[in-house]
């Protein structure tokens, strides 16, 4: 007989007793690896390159030990060039060319330090509350030492809840 708390077991329909109870699903069951870690001293021209050549996703800023420091989002970069956008940072480079020359700022000058974090043991219900309350599309998952160990996005939660029969 399958373990009632195993999110990998067969999926049922909402209300089916085989459906994993939502209150036992934790972040660890859904989180993904962090693919875009950057150091706090990464120059802004390299950050611009990361956003324009890889994918336009948040870049997780970590120290040399992997400890989470903050996030640089595409909005942080755009706001740096044009603060009238009304997004987070408030610091301004006079032009994109200035950023590309490398005489502008580094990641720690742009990053948001207020990005929400959770642990891998956080119930998904609590993660959903945080995502909704702070209107963020993702959360950084950290361990007990503050090391960034994963990401949890709202779309991953929706997908998982659909697969296990909650949506």
Just name the CATH architecture: Roll
Ends: how far apart?
24 Å
Outline the biggest β-sheet: 3 strands, mixed
Radius of gyration from the CA trace? 19 Å
Which residues form runs of ≥5 with pLDDT under 50? Answer: 1-11
Shape by Cα distribution: elongated
CATH topology: CBS-domain
* CATH homologous superfamily grouping: CBS-domain
Please work out how many helical segments DSSP would assign: 6
The proportion of strand residues reads 5-15%
Could you say how many structural domains there are in total? 1
Structural class by helix and strand composition: alpha/beta
What is the CATH class designation?
A: Alpha Beta
Mean pLDDT: 82
Topology, number of strands: 6
Order of helices and strands: EHEEHHHEHEEH
Strand order of the largest sheet: 1-2-3
Description:
This protein is α/β, with parallel strands linked by helices and 167 residues long. The protein has a single domain (22-163), classed as CBS-domain (Roll). 29% of the residues lie in helices and 14% in strands. The protein has helices at residues 44-53, 74-81, 96-101, 107-110, 124-134, 154-163; strands spanning 37-38, 59-62, 68-72, 117-118, 138-142, 148-153. It has a three-stranded mixed beta sheet.
